[in-house]
């Protein structure tokens, strides 16, 4: 396994029940943590990790011992919103330099159709001096794991598998089929496209709900109530409005739109959804600030809770909480924060705010819940209500019971 992150580690743990697994990650501190029995992402519990028999290493030469190599390294975007393939290319080179004859290499990283065969394969061929097809084989199997989701675990998610030929497809299907059901895609590009459209569909549906929530706000009706009513139709999909952060849903669409543009197609619909979702943090901040101004509060103190990119997950990469905080500060607000899943230093460094537990919180003008982690849900409105005077509660996901807001001078906002 190359890359032991949110994707690679759970997969290595699952495969180690049937196969002898070497777990390679270039991050030495991660390797040391695994060796001590702890997953720094806390996706895998110490008990489960203790039972998994994985040889952790940061030495790429260990790959020479492997007959099946899975690559799960990050595939971010750059500042121009274009695919940044540096890590996947570097991993391909490293695999090539340590490739043994007869090995099957399977990519799991989310990419656009063509990356595996047209970009990674030639790099591996060049670095190894071995010809793909006759001396080694290539496949692709996208990952669908949903960090923080304890229901849809890796052994319950159908795995799309693909290979460069029938024989490779069967071998890839056998490995993944050892722990879950597989769907055999007809070729590698189809499997690559399948993953990317799963996330595009989510992104666009959330964008649609965001747009609807902005319209409903003007109409003075509650989005949640409209969705509840519409959901009684058998073919209505109850998506919710929200901030699209993280490094999958908000990133992957740009992989396909990049390729589409290379092919002279302008993917207007996908990009319209992206644009609205990227703009939502500013819309959220403005709603809070405008409401506070209406109440005569020009230089408010705002308390923002739940800073990671989604509830009950420690991952804060591309968290839109950062953009909300920046927009609030730009409007003249003093912002403090709290995230029970992050430490003080991370919060200060990544979000530019002090981490203050609600019990240590004194008066504030606005109380904002972004990612409603379990621990945040446990804090009832009664714990904070006397700390807000004539202020605003912004409850992005609508987790607070509005009937609990007893004080008339508090304005409740949600999407
Ligand atoms: N996290 C998710 O929810 C999720 C879900 C489905 C698909 N994906 C996709 O899976 C891929 C991996 O995502 P992730 O969330 O696991 O990333 P991650 O950042 O959690 O983990 C990637 C790991 O790869 C390591 N790494 C980077 N380059 C390496 C190299 N050359 N050799 C060895 N190790 C290397 C890093 O140190 C890191 O530990 C991405 O393409 C992502 O889009 C992620």
Descriptive account of the structure:
The chain has helices at residues 8-15, 28-35, 46-51, 86-97, 115-128, 166-177, 188-219, 223-230, 252-262, 268-294, 321-330, 344-351, 374-378, 381-384, and strands spanning 21-24, 54-57, 68-71, 104-107, 137-140, 159-163, 182-184, 301-305, 334-338, 364-369, 388-395, 411-413. It is α/β, with parallel strands linked by helices and 415 residues long. The protein has 2 domains: 8-188, Rossmann fold, CATH 3.40.50; 198-415, Rossmann fold (3-Layer(aba) Sandwich). Helix 4 (86-97) links the parallel strand 3 and strand 4. Helix 4 runs parallel beside helix 5 (115-128) and helix 7 runs parallel beside helix 10 (268-294). Nicotinamide-adenine-dinucleotide is lined by residues 2-8, 24-27, 30, 72-75, 87, 90-91, 94, 108-110, 143, 145, 147, 247-248.
Summarize the structure.
It is built from 14 helices and 12 strands. 40% of the residues lie in helices and 13% in strands. The strands form 3 sheets. A 5-stranded mixed β-sheet has the order 3-4-5-6-7, sandwiched between helices.
